[in-house]
Specification:
By secondary structure, the protein is an alpha/beta fold. It has one domain: Rossmann fold (3-Layer(aba) Sandwich), CATH 3.40.50. The chain is built from six helices and eight strands, in the order βββαβαβαβαβαβα. The chain has an eight-stranded mixed beta sheet, sandwiched between helices. Strand 5, helix 3 and strand 6 form a beta-alpha-beta unit. Helix 1 crosses helix 6. The longest helix has 19 residues. It starts with a strand and ends in a 6-residue tail after the last helix. 38% of the residues are buried. Pfam families: Abhydrolase_11. It comes from Edolisoma coerulescens.
Length: 222
């Protein structure tokens, strides 16, 4: 279901992937610095979640400014929260690369607004979280992560040039939130692995994300 979500004087293009049965939980998903909501990995994850009973709303927000992307993400969260069509008990925020930075920022901001902490946001899924720029490991983008309290899942490639394995493990060990890292062996930032098809890698990611969601909320297993 295609929708346009009002954002300032513009609209954000978004698509709902709706399960057959009435969903209790949803995932809001956005893309990295390049691309849009039709990036193949997002389409694949959205279809997988919907087929397993989880509503997925993915949206496009162009712009390389994280604060702007964060604002857009917040708007989408509010939109879904107030939606009459889908009465959800809670949502998980998810993003790929820069989208996961925006998602982390939203989770931190909303958890710090006491009036807003109504438990609607259940957790955060970071796909290829860009912890640092390539070859610039000294500056870590970890400030939001260290302040988050809800459960966080990281899915990262062990050869991701923007997320050195030991550095992510170091940040995660300092996080107060319940957290889990799933490493995709030998995958780079784009989740490409020599000798494996994209579909094969996506299947691994999709299964991981869904089973983690299930561990964190009561989802019926299909």
């Amino acid at each position: 279901v295609k929708v346009k979500i009002p954002f300032g004087n513009k609209y954000l293009d978004a698509i709902f992937s709706v399960p057959e049965k009435k969903p209790t939980y949803g995932v809001i998903l956005t893309h990295g610095a390049g691309g849009d909501m039709n990036f193949s990995h997002l389409v694949s994850l959205a279809a997988y979640l919907a087929s397993h009973g989880v509503l997925c709303l993915r949206f496009t927000c162009k712009g390389l400014n994280v604060a702007y992307r964060t604002k857009a993400f917040k708007t989408v969260v509010e939109y879904l929260k107030l939606s009459d069509d889908y009465k959800l008990s809670g949502v998980f925020l998810a993003g790929r690369s820069m989208g996961s930075r925006a998602a982390a920022s939203v989770v931190r901001q909303l958890s710090q607004d006491d009036d807003d902490d109504d438990g609607f946001i259940q957790g955060l899924v970071c796909l290829s979280y860009p912890l640092h720029r390539p070859k610039l490991q000294s500056k870590l983008r970890d400030e939001d992560l260290l302040l988050i309290r809800c459960p966080v899942l990281f899915v990262s490639g062990s050869a991701d040039e923007m997320c050195e394995k030991q550095l992510l493990q170091g940040v995660v060990s300092k996080m107060k939130a319940p957290k889990k890292i799933h490493w995709i062996d030998k995958a780079n930032h784009g989740m490409a692995v020599k000798g494996r098809t994209t579909d094969d890698v996506m299947e691994e990611i999709n299964v991981q994300v869904f089973s983690w969601l299930r561990e964190n909320v009561q989802l019926e297993h299909k």
